[in-house]
Amino acid sequence: MPREVTALFYRFRKYLSRLRYRKKDGSRRAEDMSAETELGRFLDRYLYDRFPGAEAFSAIERVRDREQQLAGVDVIFRGKDGRTFRVDEKAQLYYIN
Question: What's the start-to-end Cα distance of the chain, in Å?
Fold first, then answer.
């Protein structure tokens, strides 16, 4: 594993360990946003244009629109067949297989 990828992996572990602890009001919003930003950078750099089957997509777009992001859409995959897939990356922070 390249040194860069290893360093990012350990940063994720640090963020994920912080997510276990909630503030007194039960909110983790700041931690979620920080971890999601790091996850997005990692996925953009090392996964989205390289995963098996990536050639089936005509475009992979990071969503910048705040309304879509609040609705849980972080990335949009546009298939060459006309289908569209919306991805909520934050969910991956909690449900990684």
Answer: 20
